[in-house]
Structures are given as C-alpha cells and as structure tokens.
Design a protein that fits this description.
Its main location: cytoplasm. The protein is α/β, with parallel strands linked by helices and about 350 residues long. It has helices at about 10-25, 35-45, 65-70, 85-90, 115-125, 140-145, 160-170, 185-205, 210-230, 240-250, 255-265, 270-280, 285-300, 305-315, 320-325, and strands at about 5-10, 30, 45, 50-55, 60-65, 75-80, 100-105, 135, 150-155, 175-180.
C-alpha cells in the first residue's frame, strides 16, 4: 500500500488535484481549514462551493486536523493562496522529514515581503527539505482538470530526482507534466501573468477588442521576461507552458478569476467591491504591488505593470492608463528596457 498523499487546501485547485491523484491510484488526505466545509464535502462527495459537478472518489479522505492529514505522507501538496503559504509551512514543519517532498501550487508572492513562495517555504522549513521543494505550474483551470480535459503543466524545483517523483504521481493520459529546473523563472512566470490577466480583463470591461488584448499579452510577456531574466531566470522558460501557456489561458478564459475581476474594474466598479464579489482570492492584485516593487528594485521597465499599479492602488482611470501606454516614447520591439537614474518608466 502506497503512503497517502496530503493535499492542503480544499478550494477548487486542491480538490481537483486530490481527485486526479485518487484516479491515479493514490490514497489522498484532503485537508480543509473549515470543519463545516470538511464535513459537507465528505458527506456530499462533491465540493459544491468550489468545484461543482466533480465527484470525489472514495480514495480521498477529508480531514480538518493537519497532523492527521500529514500522517505517513511522502508528498505534501500545498494548494492554499500565496498569503497562507507561510502559515502552512509553519504548520507542517513539525511533521516533515528528510524524504518529504513539498509541492507548492500557489502562484504569487508573499504580501508585504514580496518574496517568492519557494523562498517563504525555505525560511520556515528545515534545511534538509530545501532541495525537495517543487512547484506545479502552467496553464490549468481546476474546472477542466476535474473533468479530465487534456492539460499540460511543468514541475519546477532545484532537485531533478524530486521533480521526477512529482512528475510520476501526477501524470496520466489526461494530465501531462514536464520537468523544468528553472524554479525562479517558473515562479515568476506563474505569478506575473496574473497582472497581465487583470489588464486584459480591464480591456474587455472597457469594450476594447482583440487587437488590444493581443498587444497586452505580447508586451506583457516581454516585460515579464525582462524582470525574470534580471533575477536569474532562463528566458526560454517564458516561452513555455509556465510562461506563454499560462499567460494565454489566464488572459482569455472566463475561468480566470483575475480576468473576471479585471472586467468588473474596467466596467467602473471599485476594487473593494470587485474583490468582495469574487468570493475567492484574486492573486493578481497583490502580485501587481509586488511586481511594481521588484521592477523598481531591479531597474526594469514594466509599463503595463506600472499602469496596473496606478489603477489598482492610486485610483487612476483605466482609460487614462491605456493612453499612458499608447503614448510612451518610441522604442524598438526587441529592446531590453532598463531604468537609468532619473528615467520615468512611463
């Protein structure tokens, strides 16, 4: 009998991954923070709030006790939002051992510190865990994974053997996993695409067309790549599944909560109201603040991110933000844009 796999977080993505792992023949302990939610999902065999229509197999055991969820596990899948990653790391710390592989699935930065999530995990977990931290990322909506629609992702980490083990537990004929050892690049790509998705949503809310969306996606990828490379990422990562693939699906699908939030902002609704309406975490808001900070720190020009920051945090009118983007100084498409002293990134 294989040791159970722990999935921490019973939202849409955690539930979808638990179902996938169960279909692959694994026993799964799915941990839910809320005891009432745990009992309801267990009784219904369905997560009606976050992933309706997907039946949860008997191999998935719901639990509200994190120690119980982690009993005898080799793999811990963290499926909580970015702001909860440190808390989860602190909770699992007493129960990890040298063979434990921790798989993060959140895409974002820690609020206030602007740390990548692997950095947060490494701050809280023992040194012997550091090489066994992995990230599962790429173009993937929980709603489609739950229905066994063909999906391809990447697993990133510092250790190839750990990445291969993650690849083995997840792969099946509907779910293909590639290995990419550029952890920095995969993390940054997965986080920063949410900023651009908010922007394409705003464009849709303003009533702009496909030309605008294509421009935002293409130039958004350019600035994401610039920032990633400045932090040591491989530029090829950004043309792969974790970069271009995830960017396209997040910017074009109504499954994307970042795009849906952006549409409401473009229609004139206040950010606070939009976030209340969503009912789930919109990672792109915090990521915009983090990306703005990191771009300034690295001296990298990110015009779309800058305008998103002005719209979200300084109340700039979205149409005026578009004008600012369209009337920037002339440049060549392939130029790397870096800030020099006194330069205005707009």
């Amino acid at each position: 009998m294989k040791n159970p796999i722990a999935v921490l977080g019973a939202g849409s993505w955690g539930t979808a991954l638990a179902v996938l792992l169960a279909h692959n023949g694994h026993e799964v302990n799915l941990w839910a923070r809320n005891q009432e939610q745990c009992a309801t999902i267990s009784a219904d065999k369905e997560n009606k709030k976050y992933l309706p229509g997907v039946i949860i197999p008997d191999q998935v055991s719901l639990c509200n006790n994190i120690q119980e969820a982690l009993s005898d596990t080799e793999f811990i899948v963290s499926a909580v939002p970015s702001h909860s990653v440190r808390e989860i790391a602190q909770s699992i710390c007493p129960y990890v051992h040298e063979g434990t592989i921790i798989i993060n699935t959140a895409k974002g930065f820690e609020p206030k510190t602007h740390l990548r999530l692997s950095q947060v995990l490494k701050e809280e977990l023992p040194d012997y865990c550091h090489d066994h931290i992995a990230l599962l990322s790429g173009p993937s909506h929980a709603e489609e994974v739950g229905k066994n629609l063909p999906t391809a992702l990447v697993v990133a980490g510092d250790c190839q053997s750990s990445a291969e083990k993650v690849q083995d537990i997840f792969m099946n004929r509907f779910f293909r996993v590639y290995i990419n050892l550029d952890l920095i690049g995969v993390e940054l790509a997965g986080a920063l695409k949410n900023v651009i998705a908010l922007g394409t949503g705003i464009s849709d809310g303003l009533g702009y067309g496909d030309n605008t969306k294509a421009a935002l996606i293409t130039r958004g990828l350019a600035e994401i790549t610039r920032l990633g490379v400045s932090f040591g990422a491989d530029d090829k990562t950004f043309s792969g599944l974790a970069g271009l693939g995830d960017l396209v699906v997040t910017c074009t699908s109504m499954h994307s909560r970042n795009r849906r939030a952006g549409i409401q902002i473009g229609q004139g609704k206040p950010l606070k109201q939009v976030l209340s309406n969503m009912g789930m975490v919109v990672e792109g808001v915090n990521t915009t603040e983090a990306a703005h900070h990191l771009a300034r720190q690295a001296g990298v020009i990110m015009p779309i991110t800058e305008q998103m920051f002005q719209v979200l945090f300084h109340g700039k009118d979205p149409e005026n933000a578009v004008i600012s983007l369209m009337t920037r100084s002339k440049t060549h498409e392939g130029e790397g844009e870096m800030l020099s002293s006194g330069n205005d990134p707009l």
